[in-house]
């Protein structure tokens, strides 16, 4: 028979054990989350949306560069390092986009980094040997992104293969629909008006796919921006080519294009999305919605 003192010890030990185990589950919530599926981090919001379409309910996707900021010259904040090191894989665009990536990856250890643009034929920047990163602005390239993400997810989580394949198939169908819609929409733009003038010349892949010439005050945000020579060159071009409308971007300083508009008398027809999806309530919260918004804005300005 246990005496009163020994009973007390048994009960006390049970309390200690229960206390320890519940404390452990509180200390490591990330372990519990990990068991529910893959945790994907992407460099910017557009990739986050596309990856989210493929992973569906089998995992979580986050992105680093906040909506409204541009991903070329982003400065990672301390919480970004934590987000990346807590993830199973880091999806980046590649093609010269994430110039801040090296510093980030060097500080987060062994996280696999996958460039989802792999296999795309790059368009080069003007006057040098670097690739233009904005491949996602042509739908056919995003289909390559989807297939690269699909293959990577299957490799990391083979038991989810059929779900990932069905999500990707559904999304590829939506992209086909978007492409058909774009081709139909742009029919109302006369050939001589097919000229997209924006601040950062990000629509080269879009232009190559859908038959538009493109021009920017500068070629890419990470280069020198907005010199009087760059602004003057676009003013001359707008006058010489009789450009019907100008456009500004949600993630680029609008003052340069405003100067060009004042000088030439040509209107800014609207704001387009290049390097980020739109915020909640914008109607451009996903890649597909932002592309629709862009095409509607181009067509209304140029037709
Ligand atoms: Zn850009």
Can you tell me the CATH superfamily of the largest domain? Nitrogenase molybdenum iron protein domain
Order of helices and strands: HHEHEHEHEHHEHEHEHEH
| Average pLDDT score | 89
How far apart the termini lie comes to 95 Å
| Topology-level CATH name of the largest domain | Rossmann fold
Integer-rounded radius of gyration = 25 Å
- What is the total number of structural domains? 2
Q: Compute the number of helices.
A: 11
Read across the widest sheet, the strand sequence of neighbours is 2-1-3-4
Based on the coordinates given, report the CATH architecture of the largest domain. 3-Layer(aba) Sandwich
Under CATH at level 1, the class of the largest domain stands as Alpha Beta
Shape: globular
**What share of the residues lie within helices?**
40-55%
Kindly estimate the percentage of residues that lie in beta strands according to DSSP.
5-15%
Q: Sheet with the most strands?
A: 4 strands, parallel
Helix/sheet category: alpha/beta
Low-pLDDT stretches: 1-34
The number of strands is: 8
Bound molecules: zinc ion
In summary, what is this structure?
The protein is built from eleven helices and eight strands.
Provide a descriptive summary of the structure in words.
The protein is an alpha/beta fold and 303 residues long. It folds into two domains: 32-183, Nitrogenase molybdenum iron protein domain (Rossmann fold, 3-Layer(aba) Sandwich); 189-302, Rossmann fold (3-Layer(aba) Sandwich). The protein is built from eleven helices and eight strands. The chain has helices spanning 4-27, 29-35, 45-55, 78-85, 101-106, 139-156, 161-185, 204-210, 228-241, 255-264, 287-302; strands at 38-44, 59-65, 89-92, 113-115, 195-200, 213-218, 246-249, 268-272. Helix 3 (45-55) packs across helix 6 (139-156), helix 7 (161-185) runs parallel beside helix 11 (287-302) and helix 9 packs across helix 10. Bound molecules: zinc ion. Zinc ion (ZN) is lined by residues 70, 72, 134, 200, 202, 221, 274-275. Residues 70, 72, 134, 200, 202, 221, 274-275 line the site of zinc ion. One of its GO terms (molecular function) is metal ion binding. Its main location: other.
């Amino acid at each position: 028979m246990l005496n009163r003192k020994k009973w007390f010890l048994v009960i006390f030990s049970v309390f200690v054990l229960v206390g320890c185990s519940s404390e452990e589950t509180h200390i490591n919530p990330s372990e519990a989350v990990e068991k529910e599926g893959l945790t994907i981090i992407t460099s910017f919001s557009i990739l986050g949306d596309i990856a989210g379409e493929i992973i569906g309910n089998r995992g979580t996707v986050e992105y680093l560069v906040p909506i409204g900021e541009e991903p070329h010259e982003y400065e990672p904040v301390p919480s970004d390092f934590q987000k990346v090191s807590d993830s199973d894989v880091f999806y980046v665009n590649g093609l010269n986009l994430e110039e801040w990536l090296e510093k980030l990856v060097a500080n987060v250890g062994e996280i696999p980094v996958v460039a989802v643009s792999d296999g795309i034929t790059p368009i080069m920047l003007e006057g040098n040997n670097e690739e233009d990163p904005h491949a996602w602005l042509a739908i056919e390239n995003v289909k390559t992104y989807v297939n690269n993400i699909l293959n990577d997810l299957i490799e990391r989580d083979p038991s989810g293969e059929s779900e990932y394949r069905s999500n990707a198939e559904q999304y590829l169908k939506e992209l086909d629909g978007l492409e058909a819609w774009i081709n139909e929409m742009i029919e109302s733009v006369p050939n001589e008006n097919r000229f997209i003038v924006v601040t950062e010349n990000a629509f080269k892949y879009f232009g190559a796919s859908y038959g538009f010439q493109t021009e920017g005050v500068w070629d890419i945000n990470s280069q020198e921006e907005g010199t009087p020579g760059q602004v003057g060159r676009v003013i001359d071009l707008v006058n010489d080519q009789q450009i019907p409308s100008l456009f500004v971007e949600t993630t680029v300083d609008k003052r340069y294009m405003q100067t060009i508009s004042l000088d030439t008398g040509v209107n800014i027809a609207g704001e387009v999305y290049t390097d980020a999806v739109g915020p909640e309530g914008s109607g451009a919260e996903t890649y597909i919605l932002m592309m629709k918004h862009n095409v509607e804005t181009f067509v209304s300005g140029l037709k």
